[in-house]
């Protein structure tokens, strides 16, 4: 999702520098490694597909060493952002603000009691093998085992809606990124909030 909002930037933006790519790779790999270590993430074939599951109601129970590792990840993420152009920083802020506002307006305090499918991905050349479905089911199984609902934000809505529907998710609300940004060179990106709860309404 982040790549979608960062790529269509003005030509003068240096989004492809080697240093920036190295920073993105390093922070991404570190983040996923720590998430797996903490039991929040699962992968297939050493990263051909991966998913992150966050259970907010368990966060206070995490040991101190986990919190220290998370602090390291946050620092690496800040380093990555340092390589962003002003336009990219603006877009990161836009998506963060809009996601937070929509989740609060739609889910409110329910967020704290729900399971969040924070990230799921499959390498393009590995798609069609059922990896994403298997990983998505891990998250819904965790939620079902505790009689909880789960939710997530989805980009690339046209391609992903059917996938999430098959896992039991429904689209609850959407918003646009780039609809009021004159530097956006492609059509605005639609972001959907989807959930498994019939009680989640706008």
From TrEMBL:
Protein's recorded name: N-acetyltransferase domain-containing protein
Residue ranges crossing the lipid bilayer per the database entry: none
Signal peptide range in chain numbering: none
SUPFAM superfamilies named in the record: Acyl-CoA N-acyltransferases (Nat)
